[in-house]
Amino acid sequence: MARIDVNRSGEMEVFARVVTLGGFSPAARALKMTPSAVSKLVSRMEARLGARLINRSTRKLTLTAEGELFHERALRVLADLDEAESAVAASQTPRGRVRINSNVPFGLHHLLPLVPRFSALYPKVILDIVLSDTVVDLMDARTDLAIRVGPLRASQLMARKLGESPMAVVASPTYLARHGAPKTPRDLAAHNCIGFNFARHCDKWPFVDGGERLSLPVYGDATSGDGESSRQLALVGQGLARLAHFHVGGDIAAGRLVPVLETYNPGDVEEIHAVYVGHGGQLPSRVRALIDFLVAEVDLHTSAAAAI
Fold this sequence. Notes:
- Helix content is 39%, strand content 23%.
- The protein has 308 residues and is of the alpha/beta class.
- The chain folds into 2 domains: 8-90, Orthogonal Bundle (Arc Repressor Mutant, subunit A); 94-308, D-Maltodextrin-Binding Protein, domain 2, CATH 3.40.190.
- Helix 1 packs across helix 2 and helix 1 crosses helix 3.
- The longest helix is centred in the N-terminal third of the chain and has 26 residues, at 65-90.
- The radius of gyration is 25 Å and the shape is elongated.
- The two termini are 48 Å apart.
């Protein structure tokens, strides 16, 4: 168990984590302590202050009036400490290892092409890059930064938006020459559509027809577990795929894929965020440098796919 010095700022940090994360156990995991150690530390605080801060029950923790007052003041003190430390850290050259997790399409077409430019700016930062379409837990995977595509789930993570990208139904010229292009969304019933096979995905594609919003099921003889596999299947003429422009923009520009049913495109977009663990602005300078770099440099209107 990591040892935390029993001082007032340390106690405040533990107390704030308990309140923010909603319990002793999640706070203990975040602080690399045991739940009993966190509970005892809060009890010692209450004894020293002569006031109960938290009402404990088997289901949840609630703050007393004294606890709410102490939490508000503790956050203010911790924010001042973070600001003072950040001011010092900002003057230091970013250095060290940054572990970043990205889904495969964004990693291949946007992240990896930017690595040489980032390394030239920050030669003392080592990028530890993992490409996977599995959504990782940043704490469990010891990941500093993750790229998330699509709606963000409610969590304690911080996020910076990198951009958004419109969706399109695309197919290769070879496929269209063999099967023709669908004229209306309902024509998809006669076409081979490349779907996804992961549990949280529903193979219905949205369209707008004369002001009516449609959500049509699609079928085909091949599915994939990630967008890059779907792109490759579309490129070799397997069928139609619905993917974001950040993924296939280069293929469209080069004529390797052709958008279809654009008249019926509902205009939905995929949002791309960089998510990370942060508290009160506390973030290593090496991680902040990478986030700021990605916000400035990621251009979702162009794609490195043209060079692949």
